[in-house]
């Protein structure tokens, strides 16, 4: 029988060698409230179009539902704290903000490889079975992270750590070994509501509740098709994700900037010019964001986001970039270009473009964008 207490310490040391900043352990049944909370969230429709969240609910609700033999859950976290202040980038209206985690190589690839190394160490030394997960399986990472003592779910629903703030990427190892568990972390948010108050789209109907239908991260990454018109102005110049609720957390004062050795950041992906992004062809988009989380969203959704940012930019020079995209093959991009131009051009100029492009348009949603844009122009 292995000395599990000694093995735990050796496991933590091995994880730190791989670049993980925090390692905590929970019993597999340590988060019984996760399942009921998930059901309530789904029943409210707060998962929006993420239907995969509603699939395999029984397997997602608890680790044993996914793997009956699991006895311990090892939660690991890697800090990705940015060197800049994401909130300051909002003032650079002609540049597009990419969420801090997505400026790096895809964390799924980075963390999964490191998790396999740690899990392999455990399997060899404990004679136990292991499974690794990085945000790609029905695992409730955040409730398990709190149960393991790694941090607590803040009022914005994201894990916050007293040692690392809110800039944490999570990885999970399930094992049949029964390792000594850590104490769960309690909530340290107190009366603070900064993360709720800062949300541009009011995506939090109540503390600890996130409605993805209004979340900029969801709208710019997961949501397909046109972004609801009422929410477009609040998106500002965010072209992939949103860091506002993370950036204002006072616990970030304990977080350090992520080490380059762990997460390889591209400085040209911090806030690239919107004009540069709008001109990307599909091949150029794939090359520019190769190995990045941005690539998985695809050019169509990304350029849609860029056009929303152009419409919010107040930069008349960007109108030409939007005008060029009126001829794009993707209807979502054409419709977003119409909206962007309606925010930048005078009514007469917009009407002239409509007379040129509207008679040739066949997509109903793009036609509706033109009609609404022209009606709003006449109203003003």
Distance between the termini: 78 Å
* Strand order in the largest sheet: 1-2-7-4
Structure annotation, total helices: 18
Rg from C-alpha positions?
23 Å
How does this model look, in words?
With 380 residues, the protein is of the alpha+beta class. It has 2 domains: 1-272, no CATH class; 273-380, no CATH class. 42% of the residues lie in helices and 9% in strands. It has 18 helices and 8 strands. It has helices spanning 4-17, 34-43, 57-61, 63-66, 107-126, 141-148, 194-198, 216-221, 232-235, 244-247, 274-278, 282-288, 293-297, 299-313, 319-324, 331-344, 347-357, 364-379, and strands at 22-27, 72-79, 97-98, 130-133, 152-153, 159-160, 168-175, 238-240. The strands form 3 sheets. Strands 1-2-7-4 form a 4-stranded antiparallel beta sheet, with helices on both faces. Strands 3-8 form a two-stranded parallel ribbon. A two-stranded antiparallel sheet has the order 5-6. Helix 1 (4-17) packs antiparallel against helix 5 (107-126). It is elongated.
Set out the fold topology.
Blueprint: H1 4-17, E1 22-27, H2 34-43, H3 57-61, H4 63-66, E2 72-79, E3 97-98, H5 107-126, E4 130-133, H6 141-148, E5 152-153, E6 159-160, E7 168-175, H7 194-198, H8 216-221, H9 232-235, E8 238-240, H10 244-247, H11 274-278, H12 282-288, H13 293-297, H14 299-313, H15 319-324, H16 331-344, H17 347-357, H18 364-379
Parallel strand pairs: 3-8
Antiparallel strand pairs: 1-2, 2-7, 4-7, 5-6
Helix pairs in contact: 1-5, 14-16, 16-18, 17-18
């Amino acid at each position: 029988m292995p000395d599990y207490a000694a093995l735990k310490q050796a496991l933590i040391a091995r994880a730190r060698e791989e670049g993980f900043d925090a390692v905590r352990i929970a019993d597999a049944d340590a988060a019984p409230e996760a399942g009921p909370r998930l059901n309530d969230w789904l029943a409210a429709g707060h998962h929006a179009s993420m239907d995969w969240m509603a699939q395999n609910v029984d397997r997602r609700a608890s680790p044993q539902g996914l793997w009956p033999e699991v006895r311990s859950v090892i939660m690991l976290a890697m800090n990705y704290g940015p060197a800049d202040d994401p909130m300051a980038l909002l003032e650079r209206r002609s540049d597009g903000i990419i969420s801090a985690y997505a400026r790096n190589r895809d964390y799924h690839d980075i963390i999964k490889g490191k998790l396999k190394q740690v899990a392999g160490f455990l399997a060899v030394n404990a004679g136990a079975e292991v499974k690794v997960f990085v945000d790609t399986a029905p695992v409730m990472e955040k409730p398990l992270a709190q149960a393991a003592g790694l941090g607590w779910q803040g009022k914005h629903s994201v894990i916050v750590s007293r040692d690392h703030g809110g800039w944490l990427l999570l990885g999970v190892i399930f094992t049949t070994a029964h390792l000594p568990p850590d104490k769960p972390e309690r909530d340290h948010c107190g009366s603070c509501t900064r993360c709720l108050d800062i949300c541009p789209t009011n995506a939090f109907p109540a503390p600890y509740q996130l409605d993805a239908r209004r979340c900029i991260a969801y709208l710019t990454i997961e949501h397909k098709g046109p972004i609801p018109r009422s929410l477009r102005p609040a998106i500002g110049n965010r072209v992939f994700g949103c860091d506002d609720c993370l950036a204002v957390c006072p616990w970030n004062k304990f977080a350090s900037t992520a080490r380059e050795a762990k997460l390889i950041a591209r400085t040209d992906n911090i806030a690239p010019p919107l004009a540069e992004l709008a001109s990307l062809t599909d091949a150029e988009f794939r090359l520019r964001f190769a190995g990045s989380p941005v690539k998985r969203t695809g050019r169509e959704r990304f350029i849609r986001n860029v056009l929303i940012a152009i419409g919010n930019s107040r930069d008349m020079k960007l109108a030409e970039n939007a005008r060029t995209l009126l001829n794009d093959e993707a209807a979502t991009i054409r419709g977003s270009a119409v909206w962007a131009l309606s925010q930048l051009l005078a009514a007469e100029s917009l009407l002239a473009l409509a007379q040129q492009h509207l008679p040739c348009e066949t997509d109903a949603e793009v036609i509706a964008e033109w009609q609404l844009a022209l009606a709003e122009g006449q109203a003003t």
